[in-house]
Structures are given as C-alpha cells and as structure tokens.
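hey so i finaly got around to running the thing on Amino acid transporter from Caulobacter rhizosphaerae. pasting the sequence first so u can double check i didnt mess up the copy paste, my clipboard has been acting weird all day
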Amino acid sequence: MQTPRTLHRTLGPLEILFLVFSALSPAMSVFIYGDGVLRMAGTGAVAAVMAGGLIAAVAAYLYAELGAAFPQAGGVYPSLVGVLGPLWAFPYITMMMVAAPTVMAFGLLGFADYVRVLVPGLPQLPVALGCLVLACGVAVLRVRLGAIVTGLFLLMEVAALVLLTAIALAHPSRSLLSALAHPVWLDHAVAKPLPIATLGLAVVSAIFTCSGAHWALYFGEELTDAPRRIGPLVTWIGGLAALVIAVPLILVVLSAPDLARILGSDTPVVSYMNLVAGPKLTAAISGVLVIAIFNALVVGIMGFGRLYYSTGRDGVWPRPISRLLAQVQAGSHAPMVATLAVCLASAALMLLGQRTLLIFTAMQNIPEYVLLAIAVLIGRRTGRSGGPFKAPLHPLVPLVTLVAAGGMIYSALMDRAAGRPALLLVVALFVGSWAYFRFRAKHASAWTPATADAVEP
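ok and heres what it spat out for the 3d tokens, dont ask me to read them lol
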C-alpha cells in the first residue's frame, strides 16, 4: 500500500476548537504564565491582562485573514510564503524550527516540576522524558482521535477554571477602578506604586499569556471547507481565549484578601487558592493542572509536527531531509517522522535548562507579529489575502499589531539581563537564515514553495 503524501481534511470546527484550546491550555496560562504577570506587576496585572488580552484578540484577525487565504499545515509559514515570498518566510521558518522544540522542552520541564510538587523527590529529567514518551504516543494517533482525547482532558481544566472564577466572585476585596487607578507591586516585600516601565513589560507578558488563536492554523490543512470556516473560527478562538484567561486573573487580584502574602509567593494563584479555598481543594486543582500541562504538550507536539511536515513537503531543506519529514503514516494519516523529530529535538534541548529555554521562547512573538501585519498590508494591496475572510477596519488591525510589536521590542531592549540577549539571538538567527537562503538559491535543489494546488482539496 502506497503511503499517502498529504494530510486529510477530516476535522470539523468543534474538533479544531478542542485541539486549539488544549494547546494554549487556559489553566496553564492562568496558573503558570499568569503567575509571572502577577509577580511582575502586582495589582497592575489587571491593566496588563486587559491590554494584553485585547491586543491578542486583535491579532487573531490577522491570523484569520491569512489562514483563510492559505489553509495549509504549518501555522503562519504558508501564508508568509504566499504573500511575502520565500526570502522573508525562510528566516521565520528557521526560527520556528528552533522555537518549536524549545517551547516543548520548557513545558516538559515545567510539567516535571508540578509533578514533583505532588510527589516530592522525583528526579526532573526522567519525569520530563517519561511525559515526552507518553505525549508523543498520543500525538501520532489519527488526528480525529487525538482531538477527542485532548477534548476530554480539556473539559477537566475548564472545570478547574470555572471553580477558580466562582470562588473569586464570591470573595470581592477591592474594586476594578482602584486596581486600574492605583496599581501597586511588591518591591522587596514592600508595596509601592507600579512603575510605567514595569507595566509595559507586564503587558508584553500578558500578550503571550492570552494568545492562542494561531494554533488553529497548524491544523488548517485538516479542516473541512477550510477557506470558508477557518477565518471566523480563528477570530472566535482569539477573543474567547483572551476572555477565559484574562477574567480569572483579574478576579484573583480583585478578590485577594492578603495581597502581600499572595504577590510575594512564587506561585501567587496557588497561594490564593490555599488562602481562600483551603489546601485540599488546591491539591485537587493542582492535579488537574498537571493533566492540563500534559494535554497542552500533546497538542503542541501534534501542531509542531505538522510544521516540520509542511517544510519537508515543500522541499525547504535538502532533498533527503525533506523526504523524511514529508512522510505521512498510512494508517493514522499522521506525519510520523516529523512528529518524532520534534520529540527528539525537545528531549535534547531539555539539557539546556529552563532559564536558557525561556530567554529564547519569550522573543518568538516579536518577528511573528511584525511579519503578520506586513503580510496582511501587502496581501490586501496585491489581492493575495482578504478573499475568503477580511480583517475589519483595515488597515487599523495590522497597524495596531505593528505598534504592539514595537512596544515589545522596546521592552526587550530595556531588559539587559534576558530580553536584549534574546532579541539579539533572534536577529542573528534571521541574518544567518538569509545567508543560507542566498547560498542555497544558487543550487538546482533550491526550495520551490508549494502552491495551494499541492494540498488535498
């Protein structure tokens, strides 16, 4: 039996919804990434999350327009190729090929840390590797079955967030107006007015925390009637994701009975639950959080595996590598080799440690937002986007996204310890990718981007 060379359009909107929300993991966003925003900004997290959630929801319209114009596997990359051309898309592809296993490695180590909270004494790396093996086993299943499995896990983490929201609503401590008008943070355990620069950094973190609509584009080649469906679906996902992540975080700040104790904790949301709901309920929710992280890792591997697959199918790399990555399993119609490549790279990158992984992960949104906005501006003018779905109020949406990206660049440059080195690393990666692309363009086996006709209808 001949191995199929394309993915199959077998997913409906509900299954895409399950996969996307499992990947972005609202519970992980609130309990892990939200912790970082709370520690950074104190009660200023309310303003940061409101602004970050709004920017993430606005950017979803750009993903929607480009995804509808180019409904293929690989996330944003096929859209950038189709609008900006391979010269500008290739550095982004290179960055994502590195960023994908980096994100996975960081998540795997975080999973191990939470497991060790529940079962003290377990070694970090073996737990992370065990999680990786299990997650990879689920990720190579038939995509429809994978969507159902992750959907069941997703229901559990949504229940945990609903419980957190209900508890916060039942214990109001301060008004929304006071949190917005007089934000305070803890500086060496002393409450002080929040500096504007720190608030800016918190907004950058909140954008990453509330984002997630782009995950739908990784499965665009497997959505039935994708050109018509994916645009509205992505916009709904963008707004809903920002809402379900931002609301619990805002309510935690507004209902916290002891701000100094909660904001001074390494895990503010868990400390809040301990203080308000008690240790037993907090332990139960921590167990759900471990499941949520595992669920997000499974779908992350599935999505990034499709990114690797699409680069192989399009011949981005030298021919032997591209052929391997483009293989699709006959029974499951899953990109087996590409998925395994993501898993092996993730296992290797775990050896770098969480700090190094986090520095690079934090910077990947900046070039993506810049290229995304430019692609929509050029795509509208050239007619390459805006057909099946149009972002409203053009050109306001891409311009707002460019302003947000400019703010992220400024915040990174002001952070000498981590932000500036990470930004320089991204720049170096782009320059090196351009040099390689120019070198490869002189050879007969140079990359020729695939057209929409290469994708199964």
